[in-house]
């Protein structure tokens, strides 16, 4: 997760890449958009690949794509190699790596599973917090393409370490695939779409802040230094939310935990809509970061509760389409509405409306009753 979390560091290299390649900003923006789509694609297919390949082959594939994608641009810099290498190959590999880490955490005993899921998903954002401070110093004076070559080589080294650490880990393919049609309820049930809707809401608000938090604070008149602190506040809150979310989801029912997260989301959005000072706006960004991170650890725990821990990879992997949809819509909608109105009010209201719909759907989810089969709950909710 620490290795694959570098997907959130694109902003550090966008300016240097634009200068090195002489590519206009709007054209260059196609690369992170493609990266988000391909990351989602990797997260959607990881469960099937895990059950089809030996674990060593899966690890090698994920890191070969991630490291090789960086090396492709690093050794032969051009817009085409950047788009193919980073926007496609690396991002698919990052999605596969994300899925691998989550699948390994999901194998933990019941008493440890929620803790390990929380720790695992928090590492995805933690790398952004740590590396955002280190990389500018490490790569000072280097061309962007040379930096990508170094990162690619480092990813291959990390892949070798992961191969060694998982050498004696039982393959997911060897365990066989669980029955996907019986025993744990239908896959595409009303419950699945309610949880996916909640996941979409949390990611819609979070990815809007990823793309626009600095500009949003600047538009309120915040000092440049305070506006620049928005990504750090967002990422630190993400880490806190992902560390706490899984454990809290284990301790309460789905309706309560999802209602609480929706309420925090609404509070953060309202703070951004009504804040009279930059400090309040920064607090709103931090609240959205808490929501963004908690969703990443809460949803796998809830999936394990309703479908069984052996199907977390399959069901949560399919639920990642909500992340991809949010990633495609949130930055674009916010940009269009800002350009049209000159403020982020309409964009924030769109997130608040999504939050209201998601909260209403989540409140109809029934708690698990251990006196009847899990499949009944999936059908009922």
From TrEMBL:
Domain Major facilitator superfamily (MFS) profile: 1-370
GO molecular function annotation: transmembrane transporter activity
InterPro entries assigned: MFS (IPR011701), MFS_dom (IPR020846), MFS_trans_sf (IPR036259), Proton-linked_MCT (IPR050327)
KW Transmembrane (keyword) present: yes
A Pfam family assignment: MFS_1
Keywords: Membrane, Transmembrane, Transmembrane helix
Transmembrane segments: 29-46, 58-76, 82-104, 116-140, 146-170, 191-214, 226-245, 257-276, 282-303, 315-338, 344-366
Annotated PANTHER family: EG:103B4.3 PROTEIN-RELATED, MONOCARBOXYLATE TRANSPORTER
Protein name: Major facilitator superfamily (MFS) profile domain-containing protein
